[in-house]
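User: Neuroglobin, Dugong dugon:
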Amino acid sequence: MQRPEHELIRQSWRVVSRSPLEHGTVLFARLFDLEPDLLPLFQYNCRQFSNVEDCLSSPEFLDHIRKVMLVIDAAVTNVEDLSSLEEYLAGLGKKHRVVGVKLSSFSTVGESLLYMLEKCLGPAFTPAMRAAWSQLYGAVVQAMSRGWDNE
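Assistant: Predicted structure for Neuroglobin:
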């Protein structure tokens, strides 16, 4: 990615990162709309959520949202050199694989991320910004996908 894309990502993330929990909740609400089968993967103390609202309001899940937003924040911070996050992201991929997440679900997560950015930024979310985020997210998923490789 070239410099102008980096700046578009940073600029948009500055707005989103002011309310990470609020925007992260939008991302996950959209994710569960698009792929409801993901809801049962979120269990805490062996308790499954009966509906999306229960999940999105549980303290454990809010903690998960915070962690996801921190990973995005790390990707934005290291946008010039994502290779510095390579091992961390591969480990994160492995954790997701172990709990039953399919690699294909990450394209739905990507759609949900773009949806959240669009909702948060409105008209400021330009096609160039969308393309820059798609590229960054693609690189993150590529690194995470190593967690699905055989040992």
